[in-house]
Write a structure and sequence with these properties.
alpha+beta, 2 domains, four-stranded mixed β-sheet, 11 helices, 47% helix
Amino acid sequence: MIRKAIVIVLIYFASLMPGFSQEFLGNIQIQHQGVDGIDPSVFSNMETSIFEFINNRVWSNYNFKIEERIEFTMVITINEVTGSDIFKGTINLVLQRPIFGSDYNSVVTNIVDNDVRFEFVPHQSMIYSDGTYTDNLTSILAYYAYLMLGLDFDTYSLEGGTQFYEKAMSVVTSAQNSNEKGWQAFEGPKNRYQLIENILNPSYNDMRKLLYEYHLKGLDVMSKDVIGGRAVVGNSLKYFKNIFNKRSSLYLLQVLIEAKRPEIINIFTEASPAEKTEMINIMKEVDPPNGTRYEAVNK
């Protein structure tokens, strides 16, 4: 009886404590068609290990309900294998966000990372600790996990993802002495360092304003008020223009435009002539190679 009473008490106090749960519901795909001479079970084990590392780990102090878990697709394409355990390739990461009052998921970002090189040993535990560089694979995955959390939170509250972006930057800092590509500022304008630096740089805060207004005040409103929600989306495009005028080659700007282009075109297909014209003028300026695609809304 005493033991039973203790169990009841423990259950009661546990119910009063904040619960934590996994944040992600990600789809992991490993593509390796161009690689010969490697046992296919290595890639299936890699896929399972990465899936469990991201989806089963708790990345924050927030309690996500099952239906609130963040959905994404990560496609890792292996182009080369050195020895038996060094893999080189690319990552394509597509992050989605559900839109209120609908069954539609909006693509928040669509990133291609070409600087992917890591060691993987099948059935070996994947260990990661914040602030510590253990290996390149877990650091890359942790970086993108925190980046996705930051982007997701930014779409629900103004600059709500800062704490997660700071953790992503901490991953970058920890990897500075790794001699692996993608982590260094001097390597070029399009890598993991540059992307998180762009996000945290106050000079480019308009991109975070866009994430918030476009999604929460625009798309989330459209199930009840199409005209009002679309007007907010159209108005938020001015942030693209503001950043383009500051730095037209900004990596973050290019990433968000790439993700949002099809959606913007779709939203304004049924807009008024004035709204179409305003959208076309802005997007042709900030995304000139795709100007004819935006003009297609007039057909």
